[in-house]
Design brief:
With 471 residues, this protein is an alpha/beta fold. The protein is built from 14 helices and 18 strands. The strands form three sheets. The protein has an eight-stranded mixed sheet. It is elongated, with a radius of gyration of 24 Å.
């Protein structure tokens, strides 16, 4: 079912204060009240999407589709055969689903493999530690690195104790505050340790909760600074070593890492569409990333986000809806290495940036959503608040700040409105980049709700008579 809306002439909105005219090309005027009424008329469409996704024949579909892929393929590291197999499977799946313009867009992506790795505490007692090498890290010599440990809790402490670091393995036992503040130790830890002469660095996993499980992720070397091996260790081992040194114990670790970096590999972003009925050149982009780390199944990060993005288009198609603008699904590649595939997509498509109404990325879990994070002008935010009111039947109506995502930030920084899902980040960072990122972490009912939110928002924004206004 699709509602007939008033047709208006013009381009972007220039004002949104209730009762004030919105002038477009000096040919017509709309008030925010009229826009609000337009959005309210999507109530029945929103209810139909919710009913289909949460209670109807499509319930649990995104979960079951995801389980089939990750059980079949497993993890999907950038440059791996697993990722390329997943891309080919998804391309075929999208074609069989009846979506339009299904195709692969070639990109070059990093290729790193961890190889065999181990860390053994030799003093003050024998203890085999769980570790995960960090993406792009170099390996150790075959015999490994055996050295005394220096434990620090911050970069500031490392600088104060720089003379003690030379020839040692630096262990970071930084406290977890939140992901954005704490992840800098994973990303920059090796460089800062190398600057003071350390032989290697071991970083406390950036995790909100741990049951002796290390969490991997990408790290970055810096030109002009020696490259040293680096890995994450468990929260438990980092805290234990901190207690040991506080008692005056000398700690010696033997670290072995077979990590290697290879030339960039060929890969693809995966694209599918529902072509717009009135403004096909204008786009609402819905996305998640298909790659993952090489531990667990990549079910949560970001299989869930990729599959609710596919599900959004499936739901809209199942109901026979065709929005005025094109709904474009993009499954990114090499997000974990810093949005590599997304950056190349941006470079290829940015000439048409004025045609992008909204870019959406789900990459923070598909647990029960509490609302939508949004970045854009105040005028666009006012519109998004009205759109979110349509989700009152499932009690997901809030609009928060910070709609950024690694893969859509290129567009947001260029002025395109952006949105992402917000849900249980404590749970998300408990499993993030770890062996625990499997289907066991996923909940089909919560994925149903997340898919409904994603479908309603993307459809309404794509079908409104005008694009979202920019600053």
């Amino acid at each position: 079912m699709k509602f007939l809306l008033f047709t208006f002439v013009g381009a972007h909105l220039l004002a949104l204060n209730s009762g004030k005219a919105i002038c477009r090309n000096d040919t017509s005027q709309r008030t925010f009240r009229e826009i609000k009424e337009e959005i309210a008329r999507y109530g029945d469409v929103a209810k139909a999407i919710i009913d289909l996704a949460v209670y109807g024949k499509a319930q649990n579909r995104s979960y079951e589709r995801l389980a089939l892929l990750v059980d079949t393929v497993g993890s999907r590291l950038s440059g791996s055969k697993g990722l390329e197999k997943a891309i080919q499977i998804m391309c075929q799946n999208l074609k069989e689903d009846g979506l339009e313009n299904v195709h692969l867009e070639p990109v070059k992506i990093p290729h790193w493999e961890r190889g065999e790795e181990s860390a053994v505490m030799l003093e003050p007692r024998m203890h085999t530690m769980a570790i995960l090498g960090l993406g792009s890290s170099i390996g150790t010599p075959p015999e490994g690195i055996t050295a005394e440990v220096l434990v620090v809790t911050s970069f500031d402490e490392l600088q104060r104790r720089a003379p003690e670091a030379r020839g040692k393995i630096v262990v970071y036992n930084q406290p977890y505050t939140n992901y954005s503040n704490t992840v800098k130790y994973r990303v920059q830890g090796a460089v800062e340790a190398a600057k003071v002469g350390a032989l290697a660095s071991l970083i406390r996993s950036v995790a909100s909760f741990s049951i002796y499980s290390p969490h991997t992720g990408v790290q970055e070397y810096q030109d002009g600074v020696p490259q040293i091996p680096t890995a994450c260790i468990t929260v438990e081992d980092a805290e234990m070593m901190s207690r040991m040194v506080s008692r005056g114990n000398k700690i010696v670790i033997q670290l072995k890492m077979g990590a290697k970096n290879y030339p960039d590999a060929d890969s693809f972003n995966t694209v599918a569409e529902i072509i717009g009925s009135k403004y096909p050149e204008q786009v609402v982009l819905v996305s998640g990333h298909l790659d993952s780390w090489d531990v667990g199944q990549g079910a949560m990060d970001d299989g869930g986000g990729a599959f609710i993005s596919w599900e959004a288009l499936s739901l809209i198609q199942d109901l026979g809806l065709r929005p005025k603008r094109t709904l474009r699904l993009v499954l990114w590649t090499a997000e974990e290495q810093g949005g590599v595939g997304a950056f190349q997509y941006f470079q290829s498509h940015k000439a048409n940036i004025s045609n992008y109404s909204l870019v959406m990325e789900s990459d923070a879990g598909t647990f029960l959503p509490s609302g939508l994070q949004f970045t854009g002008s105040e005028k666009a935010r006012a519109i998004m608040k009205e759109v979110m009111r349509l989700l009152k039947p499932i009690n997901v109506t809030q609009v928060f700040d910070a709609g950024e995502g690694t893969d859509i930030n290129f567009w947001i920084q260029a002025g395109v409105p952006g949105a992402s899902l917000l849900d249980d980040l404590y749970k998300y960072f408990s499993f993030h980049h770890s062996h625990g990122d499997t289907m066991t972490a996923m909940d089909p009912k919560q994925m149903n709700v997340a898919a409904a939110v994603w479908a309603v928002v993307s459809y309404v924004v794509a079908d409104m008579e005008e694009m979202l206004p920019r600053s």
